[in-house]
Amino acid sequence: MISQKAKYALRALVALARAHPRSATFIGDIAESQSIPKKFLEQILLDLKRHGLVVSKRGKAGGYALLRPADTISFGQVLRIVDGPIAPLPCLSKMAYRRCEDCRDEGACEVRRVFARVADATRDVLDRTTIADAVAERAPVRLRDAVG
Amino acid sequence: MISQKAKYALRALVALARAHPRSATFIGDIAESQSIPKKFLEQILLDLKRHGLVVSKRGKAGGYALLRPADTISFGQVLRIVDGPIAPLPCLSKMAYRRCEDCRDEGACEVRRVFARVADATRDVLDRTTIADAVAERAPVRLRDAVG
DNA sequence: ACTAACTCTACAAAGTCAGTATAGTTTTGG
DNA sequence: CCAAAACTATACTGACTTTGTAGAGTTAGT
Questions:
Q1: Which residue in A34, A42, A112, B94 has the most C-beta neighbors within 10 A?
Q2: Residue with more model confidence, B37 or B95
């Protein structure tokens, strides 16, 4: 399960991607439109800012905007910032490898070998899917629906 | 990240699968060979027993054994017992669906659509891989190593 | 009967999650 | 200039989860 915080972060980024890229959007507006507690969202956006995903402008006409184009921000990046490593085992994380304390021989670990496949499959989706993809993807419209 | 408990459960089942299927194995032996705290492992095995994965025999010559053949016990089943739903969002769980509290329209949720692909990929591995597969799989031996 | 094994319930320390609270700082409009 | 609106930063908290421990009870082999 991904955290509520990660869901909020992704929804906020999608909202920013939909918003006009030139002008900043108020935290309050995002919070309201996405049903996110405002003070909590402040923390999240601040974190995303520190990691270079968004920019902010202070003051009365302030707000947030994407720093980079939406098609360069992957779901994987966001999750790693907000939730930490994506890998199901610490010993499978490429970004934050940590040995399993109680593992005698990593190469022989059956559990690790199976979850390596899970990790690869997961990364395959999350690192290839961007905020832009999420915005663009519509629920697949069947031809019969589109026509008739 | 899967829990420590799930790792223990899987390692214990792998150990039981490797053990002679006719005779029961002591908790103590599994605990020692797998470096699992014994009292903790007792709880885990009891849970797996309640869910019909293993059988136990009490008394001095007691112990645990797999109830079903190792190739009928999937990683997915074990994880669901020990860690709960596998899906990254409650609204994507097939076994334990729960609506996301703050989601206006599930069909339009961009986050959900992306994580549905993650969930499918994850289930594809976990529900198709059994304890028997884990036992059988050796680290891939390259021909040159096997030969020379 | 003794002992070694499983069974069951309760408890607890530490950590995580999902926010709240509070006190700034910066910018703009008037 | 100054007040309001917006972002920044840190601390705190209550509920829950995780990872075990503890201890008493039950069963069965010798």
A1: A112
A2: B37
